[in-house]
Amino acid sequence: MNTPTSRSDALELDQKDPIRGSRESFLLPEGVIYLDGNSLGPLPAAAVTRIDEVVQREWGRGLVRSWNDAGWIDLPERVAGKIASLIGATADEVMVADSTSINLFKLLAAALRLRPGRRVILSVLENFGTDLYVAEGLAILLGDGVELRLVPTTEIEKALSADVGVLMLTHVDFRSGEMHDMERVTAKAHEAGALVLWDLAHSAGAVEVELDAYGADLAVGCGYKYLNGGPGAPAFAFVARRHHEALETPLWGWMGHAAAFDFDTTYKPAPGVKRLRVGTPPILSLAALECGVETIAAIGVERLRAKSVALTELFMALVDQQCGGYGFELVSPEEASRRGSQVSYRHPDGYAIMQALIAGDVIGDFRAPDILRFGLAPAYIRHADVWDAVAALRGIMETRAWDRPDFRARARVT
Ligand SMILES: *Cc1c(COP(=O)(O)O)cnc(C)c1O
Question: Does residue 128 carry a catalytic annotation?
Answer without folding.
Answer: yes
